Amino acid sequence: MDEQQKFKSWVRDLFEQVSTSAELETRLSMMAAAPRGYKIWTQIAYMSDKLDLLMSKRHYRIHQKRTLKDGGVIVHLVQTVGRKRKTRLDGHLAFLPSSHRNIYRVVGLNNPAFWHKVGSRFIERCYPYLVRIFFKQEELRRVLVAFEESLASRFEMSVTDSTLKEKRQLVQKSTRRIDEFDSERRWALSSISKAFESAADRRQWFKSIRLNLRNIGGKDVAATVRVTKHGLVAQDHLYDLSMRNLFPNLEGIAFSKTELFANRGLKERDYLPAKPVAIDYPVDVFDERSNVRRLAAALKAYPNSSKAIYHGNPYLHMSLADFIDGSSFEIWVLSPRRIILVPQARASVASHERLVSYVFEKFKEGEAREYSNG
Questions:
Q1: Exposure winner among 86, 139, 335, 349, fewest CB in 10 A?
Q2: Which of 75, 105, 132 is the last residue of a domain?
């Protein structure tokens, strides 16, 4: 049995034998560096209180399911991928509760083939019972700077690889301005603060960022940690550093976001007046009518939903219904700096998070907050 097979056997025994979330995370923290290609994947996500229903709905991919003593769940996923060349992929995912209500860590120890073709897709298909958390550029910067500062006495941390997006504006037929997005992969050795400052100067934002950790005064890399805007952390070693110094800050932000979206649907409120969510911007984004049209075009492409636009110029009024979740919203743009999301009969936390993060990613990041007339 080669080293890869031995490691895979060790991983299987680990996920099948632990009895609590704490035991699993302790074992992950104590393990040696993962073999080349393997990562510890941790997805920060919101999960509704219907964990059992979530698992039963996805039974066709779940080979085995086991509930831990503290309420966490470990599933063994098996799937055959590929059309011409069939490959059987199997691995485990652990759904571990955090210290915040309804915020979970979805943890796997897998190679990229399993994670991207099975694990990550399984998580996406768990919507609306589970939804990944989107982190804005400033939130990501704040969390990573705090991570760097917390480890400054032991490690030197540097940004070594990042994937960025940049908006560029094109003019077509001399009259119509079109926004397009370019992706760029960049390798650079810099501090976290400098990397974010450079991105801001170029009007870019990070899709993902990889950090190298070196012992103070050492040359060898002790661990690599990649963090994405969709709340995914992938690392090859020193899980305890993230567990203590990175995940809690991400989970705190995730909790604040999802608490804002709670109890807004009319049914949940016994048909009391709706409580809209506003997305506010610090500048007059919608003074330019092209931005109203650009937002409308982005929302028309919102996946798995029906849309109806009642008015699109100079202001926006449209409705959007989520086919998967059953939630629906009225969407208004009536002022230069604000989008208003008015929940209808059903408007779950997961649907709010999915819609707001879509607006942030496809249009422009703003500040989601309780709507007020001010």
A1: 86
A2: 132
pLDDT digits (tens, 9 = 90+) for 238-279: 999 999 999 999 999 999 999 999 999 988 888 888 889 999
* The pLDDT of residue 69: 93
Judged by average pLDDT, the poorest of 56-70, 112-126, 159-173, 312-326 is: 159-173
* Residue 59 confidence class, pLDDT cut points 50, 70, 90: low
Is 118 in the same domain as 170?
no
Rounded to two decimals, the pTM is 0.91
107 and 153 assigned to the same domain:
no
**C-alpha to C-alpha distance for 318 and 207, rounded to whole angstroms:** 29
Residues 95 and 178 in one domain: no
Q: Name the residue range of residue 337's domain.
A: 263-370
Mean residue pLDDT of the chain comes to 89
Is 108 part of any domain? yes
Q: How far apart are the first and last CA of the chain?
A: 67
Domain boundary among 115, 132, 149: 132
- In SS3 terms, 320-361 reads as EEECCCCCEEEEEEEECCEEEEEECCCCCHHHHHHHHHHHHH
Quote the CA–CA distance of 245 and 154 in Å, as a whole number: 13
- Shared-domain flag, residues 112 and 163: no
Beta-ladder partners of 129: none
154 backbone dihedrals φ, ψ, rounded to 5°: -120, -30
Contact 119, 215 (CB under 8 A): no
- Is 257 within the bounds of a domain? no
The amino acid at 26: T
Tokens of 105: 């860590």
Q: Is the pLDDT of residue 118 over 70?
A: yes
Structure tokens given for 352: 């709010």
Selected residue with higher pLDDT from 205 and 278: 278
